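User: Please predict structures.

Assistant: First:
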Amino acid sequence: MTSGLVRYHQTGDLHFVTFSCYRRQPYLGTPVARDLFERSLETMRCRYDFFVTAYVVMPEHVHLLVGEPKCVLLATALQALKLSVAVQSRERPFWQRRYYDFNVHGERKLIEKRRYIHRNPVTRGLVAQPDEWKWSSFRHWWIGEEGAVEIESNWTARRRGGLGISYEINPLNLAGTPQTHVSESRRGAPAFSKEQ
């Protein structure tokens, strides 16, 4: 086990999560593999009742910006996600054992992480503009496009019939949590401005 790695769960924070394919092999290097990951992410999002605010699937790693599940630890939901992809793939082992988890505090850090996620394919030279990479949440933030994974945003809140979402980084802080205008299942989900 890696020494010094500390994870803070059940804090109500958003989590910037990164995990990689085994030995950074490009096991997600094909459209079919990336589509498989997106389907698994959406399945686990529904099963474990957490929200996804941003993501990108790269050829050898994944970045997620997610909320915490209601009834299990985030680590359990991530383990299920990784297992779901691995059992549907030929490569063995598929994933590195560990993952990086950073608790996101404050809107400034949230925007920084979301931009990092969406610009990753451009930085790597896979595309010239973020909207050209199909396997990310960028187009949702940019034009409200619905993709394979439901993204928690003001676009989504409006589709549900809500007026938007009141935002607080720590939605479990019940003393200060504002009311949301979306369904009960999304209470505490953050709201964001359009991608900048």
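Second:
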Amino acid sequence: MGISPFNIPEEQPGMAVRIRLTRLGRKKKAYYRIIVADSESKRDGKFLDIVGTYDPLKDPAAITIDQAKLQEWLGKGAQPTTTVKSLISKAAVSK
């Protein structure tokens, strides 16, 4: 795994809060929110906070992340999914 500009701790067993994507938009025109949610909630179900957005249809793909909120949730122990980890690193590289 490459070096990340953020302090993203490795997986911890029993972690209940995840930073993940939720789908918005319409058929074949999807865009996503980067959210903090309980690991057992549905993909488009209840969530705790919105951390950013991801629009894959723009060229290049638009990624916006609120760094303060992201660091706050990472500090509380929230674990990002694999996809969100890659988006975080892409957003850091594009700045």
